Amino acid sequence: MQNTGLYIDGRWEDGASAIENRNPSDISDLIGEYGQAGADQLDAALAAARRAQGAWWAAGIQKRHDVLMAIGAELMARADEIGRIVSREEGKPLAEGKGEVYRAGQFFTYFAAECLRNQGDLAESVRPGIEIDVRREPVGVVAIISPWNFPVATPAWKIAPALAFGNAVVWKPANLTPASAVALTEIIARQDIPAGLFNLVTGPGREVGQRLIESRGVDAITFTGSVPVGRGIAAAAIRNMTRVQMEMGSKNPMVIMDDADLDLAVACASGAAFGGTGQKCTAASRLIVHSAIHDAFVEKLVKAAEAMKVGHALEAGTQLGPVVSAGQLQQNLDYIGIGKAEGAELLTGGTRLERATDGYFMAPAVFAGTRNDMRINREEMFAPITCVMKADSYDEALAIANDSDFGLTAGIMTRSLARASHFRANMRAGCVMVNLPTAGTDYHVPFGGRGASSFGPREQGTYAAEFYTTVKTAYVAAGEPA
To answer: CA–CA distance from 247 to each of 238, 259, 368, 453 (Å)?
Structure first.
């Protein structure tokens, strides 16, 4: 990567310090050293964003459309190249890295079209001779704090609507994936936009992130990450009455009923549980299986897990890459120990694997004989670990599925239209899947959850306007006709 610093007020800068970025598939592979912002650099970014925002809003909808369309088109055209960067530094298999970048491009092209959508309404007044105009305007300066697991797609679905609706952006990406952040920023920086409209400010959350969320120069904060960090952001933001949108943890259930297509159920469950090495907020970590098919399902699931090829993210045929870091790997292994101590039966996996390169590889794990009160079924592990629970009826399975602090995604595998319909109506989750993996959502419809999973307006689709805009109602006296 040519640029390894920060992008502030239309210029690339070196950070006050730097960190190493290494490939989790091969820690001898140094991707680069990336800048860390100082307090003065963050403040400069915020001031620049404030100056630029008005000019961007005044530029009009066609200009915003053209810029976002160009960003999206370049992302899609360069999906192979930038996807390789994503896979190299995050560890997801190359096909997933490429797919993520292409999807990020689709977010930009979708919101390019949204720029041209009529955002206003006209209303009749209850008073004669008065016209009412209701329209949406930008909130101002948006702080974006994004995670490492989707280092291009998640920021894309925040940056695109922020710019589409006329806002300025200060983006703090995760420190584990700075190369992906730089690649996306280089594309945005080449566009004809006001200096300071878009700013990349990397650095540790406890310093840069904290100063960002406490700043009075921020009008809205959108965050994706853990529940503890989200709670801290909410507490800090309320002091300035800053608008907040947060996507946080999950503990997604998949119910497998006795009438399910068993092979399809295993394919959906294993893909949802282990895809992306389990490092997805939509991963299926609780599998609730009807007792009539429990043993047959578990047997097939274990075989599927053991058949998965774990290896270097850039190698052909790899299905599971490494976990993202040494710290994440240790946390995963700790959860294996916790599960065993709670009495769960580890049927396969859960060990660190040796490969040709020194990386953070882990065998996908299946626990059986688990209860819903166990920590491994209550806490988000963000790991290639899934836990099987037995239920004797649909009603029991639904009750177990709903017994969680979280409510992001949930799924059911069944041939029964009645069960599927009842599950859709009564499952307390933001996204419900029928005969599909719990992971996998579309970019043009709302995304978010309930409980501890989400806070604030939904992301994506037309619902994004609820967060990135504010509503103004204008009353105008029509006057006497000529």
So the answer is: 17, 34, 29, 6
